[in-house]
Automatic annotation (TrEMBL), chain A:
<dbReference type="InterPro" id="IPR044672">
    <property type="entry name" value="MOCS2A"/>
</dbReference>
<dbReference type="GO" id="GO:0000166">
    <property type="term" value="F:nucleotide binding"/>
</dbReference>
<protein>
    <recommendedName>
        <fullName>Molybdopterin synthase sulfur carrier subunit</fullName>
    </recommendedName>
</protein>
<dbReference type="InterPro" id="IPR012675">
    <property type="entry name" value="Beta-grasp_dom_sf"/>
</dbReference>
<comment type="similarity">
    <text>Belongs to the MoaD family.</text>
</comment>
<dbReference type="Pfam" id="PF02597">
    <property type="entry name" value="ThiS"/>
</dbReference>
<keyword id="KW-0547">Nucleotide-binding</keyword>
<dbReference type="GO" id="GO:1990133">
    <property type="term" value="C:molybdopterin adenylyltransferase complex"/>
</dbReference>
<dbReference type="GO" id="GO:0006777">
    <property type="term" value="P:Mo-molybdopterin cofactor biosynthetic process"/>
</dbReference>
From TrEMBL, chain B:
<dbReference type="InterPro" id="IPR003448">
    <property type="entry name" value="Mopterin_biosynth_MoaE"/>
</dbReference>
<dbReference type="InterPro" id="IPR036563">
    <property type="entry name" value="MoaE_sf"/>
</dbReference>
<comment type="subunit">
    <text>Heterotetramer of 2 MoaD subunits and 2 MoaE subunits. Also stable as homodimer. The enzyme changes between these two forms during catalysis.</text>
</comment>
<dbReference type="Pfam" id="PF02391">
    <property type="entry name" value="MoaE"/>
</dbReference>
<keyword id="KW-0808">Transferase</keyword>
<keyword id="KW-0501">Molybdenum cofactor biosynthesis</keyword>
<comment type="pathway">
    <text>Cofactor biosynthesis; molybdopterin biosynthesis.</text>
</comment>
<dbReference type="GO" id="GO:0006777">
    <property type="term" value="P:Mo-molybdopterin cofactor biosynthetic process"/>
</dbReference>
<protein>
    <recommendedName>
        <fullName>Molybdopterin synthase catalytic subunit</fullName>
        <ecNumber>2.8.1.12</ecNumber>
    </recommendedName>
</protein>
Length: 85, 151
């Protein structure tokens, strides 16, 4: 199965100390929300992705909610609420 | 429709002129220019850096314009959003809308800005005398975007 291309932006990128990674779809992860929980469980700085933190997600460059399904091979981005304009 | 995400500045006058050039059916052009302010939350802002999500940004802006075109009778739209480091007084964003009558142009211009504020993946980081900080999203921006769903 092809890997996920995961991207992190803005304050979240700084908190994680990383702008992205490639990751095989972890066992049992079927949605964007489950992927977020999986990443947050790494501990330390990854708590920035934890429940209660104001984090938004995009799947293949479209904003999605936590129930958006993953099959592997997608581009998934996590970021804080946007502040452009 | 034309959408640009760029580092460079833009010429708002030239963009406004282009929206009606060659189309005498255009009776109204509404435009908005957003600028970097020198203060935020009682602190002096010395510079601002705009980060964005290349690829998604252009797509999100184009989708917002398509939605505006579905709601109002528009004869032309232009959106420019800059990224990178900007100083107070510099232009950040341009939205221009052409239509036959002013109502459609005014409404679509405001709609595009309200949706851009909540849906386009840009993030502002301010440099202040006390250090740099990421700008927090404002609830008032969500409320401004949500009111377009009510009617």
């Amino acid at each position: 199965m092809s890997e996920l291309n995961i991207l992190y932006f803005a304050s979240l990128r700084e908190a994680l100390g990383c702008s992205g990674e490639r990751l095989a779809l972890p066992d049992g992860v079927r949605t964007v929300g489950a992927l977020r929980e999986h990443l947050a469980a790494r501990g330390e700085g990854w708590a920035a992705l934890g429940a209660g933190r104001n984090v938004r997600a995009a799947l293949d460059q479209r904003m999605v909610g936590p129930d958006a399904p993953l099959a592997g091979g997608e581009e998934v981005a996590f970021f804080p609420p946007v502040t452009g304009g | 429709m034309s959408v640009s995400v760029q580092r460079e500045d833009f010429d708002a006058g030239a963009e406004i002129a282009a929206l009606s050039a060659g189309n005498a059916g255009v009776g109204a052009v509404a435009s908005f220019v957003g600028l970097v302010r020198d203060a935020g939350h009682d602190q002096r802002v010395e510079a601002m850096t705009l980060e964005h999500y290349p690829g998604m940004t252009e797509r999100a802006l184009a989708e917002i314009v398509v939605e505006a075109e579905g709601r109002w009778r528009l004869l032309g739209t232009r959106v420019i959003h800059r990224h990178g480091r900007l100083l107070p007084g510099e232009r950040i964003v341009f939205v221009g809308v052409a239509s036959a009558h002013r109502g459609d142009a005014f409404a679509a211009c405001e709609f595009i800005m309200d949706y851009l504020k909540t849906r386009a993946p840009f993030w502002k980081r301010e440099e202040t005398p006390e250090g740099a900080r990421w700008v927090d999203a404002r609830e008032s921006d969500d409320e401004a975007a949500a009111r377009w769903n009510a009617n």
